[in-house]
Amino acid sequence: MSETHKKILFKYYSDYLDEVVSETMWAEILDLEKGLFKLDNIPFFGPLIATDDIFYAEYDETEARFMHRKTIQNSGNSIVQIAILEKGFDAAIIREKLKAINCLSEELNETFFAVEIVKDVDYALVRSLLNEYESQEIIEYAEPCLSEKHRTDLLKN
Fold first, then answer.
1. Which residues of the chain form beta strands (DSSP E)?
2. Within 13 Å and on the Cβ side, how many CA atoms surround 88?
3. DSSP classification of residue 61
4. Could you write out the DSSP letters of every residue in 107-119?
5. Helix, strand, or coil here: 106?
6. Tens of pLDDT along the chain (157 residues)?
7. Which of 68, 100, 139, 144 is the most buried (most CB within 10 A)?
8. Neighbours of 145 (CB within 10 A)
């Protein structure tokens, strides 16, 4: 069976952690010789990349693995990070509401998760849901990778 995916190393500065982080993520191999991949993971800490974005990576001898070099084509998807502020609040409540509007999420731990907003979801809906929880000081959220399409959704309203 041929390999269809590779783990790629991403190194970037995280505002959330206030430091340079390394995160490995799965990517679909588009053209190994040219170093072209499509991200198949929801990033946690906010590199400027979203699921289904096409990017260039090259083999790094020091790291002994492929490393992200630059994003070539944006998919139109966005990534939002959510931190639970209220002690004991069940993140699954918000994750289920997001899932109901077609936004999948990946949990890092009980108080932090990242959400994929696919291109065809109206981001204004997502934003109003998040603002509702933020105004009650249950969560705070960041938008490290907001696509052009989702920025436009916000301007329409």
1. 5-14, 19-31, 36-39, 54-60, 65-73, 78-84, 105-109, 112-117, 139-145
2. 0
3. T
4. EEETTEEEEEE-T
5. strand
6. 358 999 999 998 877 778 898 999 999 999 999 999 999 999 998 778 999 999 999 999 999 999 999 999 999 999 999 999 999 999 999 999 999 999 999 999 999 999 999 999 999 999 999 999 999 999 999 999 999 999 999 998 6
7. 68
8. 24
* Tokens representing residue 120 in the block: 């065809």
Closest Cα partner for 78 from 97, 96, 98, 93? 98
Quick check: 78 and 147 in contact, CB under 8 A?
yes
The CA-CA-CA angle for residues 26, 27, 30, to 5°, reads 160
Dist CA 59 CA 71 (whole Å): 16
CB 47 within 8 A of CB 98: no
Residues paired with 27 in a beta bridge: 6, 39
